[in-house]
Amino acid sequence: MITIIYHDSFLSVTEKDQFEEQLSLEMRFCLTPDGRVLECNKNGQALVNQFGTHFLNFFSDHVAMEAKTYLKTLSESNDIVTALLQDKVSNHDLGTLYNGFSKDGKINLVGYRTQMMTRLSAEFAHELRNPLTIIKGFLQLSEYTKEYEKYQPVILSEIDRMYTILENYLTMSFRKCNYKEMNPDALCKSIISLLSAECMVNKVNFDYDVTYSENYCKIDVNKMKQVMINLLRNALESFEGQVFEKKIFFRGSVEDKGYRFSLSDNGPGMDTDVLNNLGQPLFTTKSKGTGIGLSLCKKIIAEHRGTFCVSSIPHQGTTVSFFLPFVSP
Length: 329
Ligand SMILES: Nc1ncnc2c1ncn2[C@@H]1O[C@H](COP(=O)(O)OP(=O)(O)O)[C@@H](O)[C@H]1O
Ligand SMILES: [Mg+2]
Known about the structure:
CATH architecture of the largest domain: 2-Layer Sandwich
Order of helices and strands: HEEHHEEEHHEHEEHEEHHEE
Bound molecules: adenosine-5'-diphosphate, magnesium ion
Number of domains: 3
């Protein structure tokens, strides 16, 4: 199968293959600037079969204009652009979120079927109800027993869980990237303050090692924080039931063409089985999991044109790292 969107400078070769399988609800197209389909993946082919080889044909008349403007914006920009467009089959709930960039005079696009979004919304509504029920229960209990302090940590952690779920949902949907060119050290600093506070609260030993860099990366700070929060949450959740000292280590290091951020934990690690399924939307091994954290992290890193890597040794721990390219001076 041809991989169109995640080209070499964007994701490593192995990463590319994983992506192809993971995001099976994605449609990908490579277009000429005027919208003729040059290549597409299997899901994209379904649209081509139905509507022909012109991108604009995928849309009903009233959104075709939007689609045209979108193509124009893309062909004039080197940045990733995200737009929500609805395709012709929208009455079957197949609206499409397009995310694209141009390279070599071609436009590369990836679309998400909203069926997936619909499924996700249902999941999230469901997921939000659980912590809400718990919060309500504990508040009632503390009112009754007058032991508010006893229940406060649970209530706060449930509220945190709701924040994460909401943030993930928002990113998965329509929020645009807000990139700033910045020194990766600056990002490391805010990551460290975030991590050290969370680790302290959770009684986890935290340490870090950050190398100074003279170069800049293009970063959406909020999205990067979201990646770190997801990775941290996974690490903390992996410690559940662990009796020996829990440790989290953050490293920021300069590499040849970019900067690498990595987070290691000494949790239980993952079996090959789990590793193979990682990043598949909605894959989770937790009873309260949403299975969205890692696939979202991958999406955000891919939007930054970076690479994402997970390595894990059972009974020893897990390291998740991502690499962001430097902007050329
Ligand atoms: N640091 C980690 N240690 C062990 N397992 C992990 C770690 N991070 C992720 N995983 C595994 O990957 C799965 C998917 O993670 P994620 O996409 O964040 O969804 P969720 O946390 O909701 O399960 C988890 O259910 C867990 O099995
Ligand atoms: Mg998670």
